[in-house]
Design a protein that fits this description.
218 residues; alpha/beta; TIM Barrel; eight-stranded parallel beta sheet; 8 helices; globular; binds D-xylitol-5-phosphate; binds zinc ion
């Protein structure tokens, strides 16, 4: 099966947001990836609830929301009400990760956990069966347009082994620096979802760039 492609709206043209959302709707993309940054957990602020509400109004595909915020428990219900289908929190931002994951599910969303590049897969041993998705950060979170960290390939393989060993049905998402040069190797290593921001939106023809990524992972 080919990887799912999730264009990251962080790299869209915010002055033409509806146009870019319609482009994704009409493209071969599978999901919308939405980055929420609070300026505390990561050294950048992206956008918040009013913008997500506007995106939600036009988006016709799965909303994959990636929270790069401290204490995400405060906003779980709000993100559900705004139409999020998948809500991903950072391992590094959650003291009571198991409780947070259950709270996300009880609001009717799929639950994901993101790991920073320095965080080892082994921390997921006792939670993997509860997770719908694991997002491996292949850049340090906070900014689009950074270079892919090569160590990610072996992390994907290690995570895949953990999922198989535990009999979990968790899917693996890769976020950061995804391009046509690493998409196939990521897919072959076991990635199910590829997030791509700059590579899609800064290209001449974003819709055909999405198709290109999809083709590479068949
Ligand atoms: C990074 C974000 C990513 C980012 C990806 O903190 O979580 O989703 O938008 O952008 P590119 O593909 O440009 O690295
Ligand atoms: Zn992201």
């Amino acid at each position: 099966m080919s990887s799912l492609i999730a264009p990251s709206i962080l790299a869209a043209d915010f002055a033409n947001l509806q146009r870019d959302i319609e482009m994704v709707n009409a493209s071969e993309a599978d999901w919308f990836h939405i980055d929420i940054m609070d300026g505390v957990f990561v050294p950048n602020i992206s956008f918040g609830m009013p913008v997500l509400k506007a995106i939600s109004k036009h988006a016709k595909k799965t909303l994959d929301v990636h929270l790069m915020i401290v204490d995400p428990d405060r906003y779980i219900r709000t993100f559900a009400e705004l139409g999020s289908n998948i809500l991903t929190v950072h391992y590094e931002a959650c003291t009571h990760l198991h409780r947070t994951i259950q709270a996300i599910k009880s609001e009717g969303m799929k639950a994901g956990v993101a790991l920073n590049p320095h965080t080892n897969i082994t921390v997921l041993e006792d939670i993997i069966l509860d997770l719908d998705l694991v997002c491996l950060m292949s850049v340090n979170p906070g900014f689009g347009g950074q270079s892919f960290i090569e160590n990610t390939y072996q992390k994907v393989e290690q995570l895949k082994r953990l999922i198989t060993k535990k009999g979990a049905s968790t899917i693996i998402e890769i976020d950061g620096g995804v391009t046509s040069t690493n998409a196939k190797q990521l897919h072959d290593a076991g990635a199910d979802v590829l997030v791509a921001g700059s590579f899609v939106f800064k290209s001449e023809n974003p819709s055909s760039t999405i198709s290109e990524l999809k083709q590479l992972t068949v």
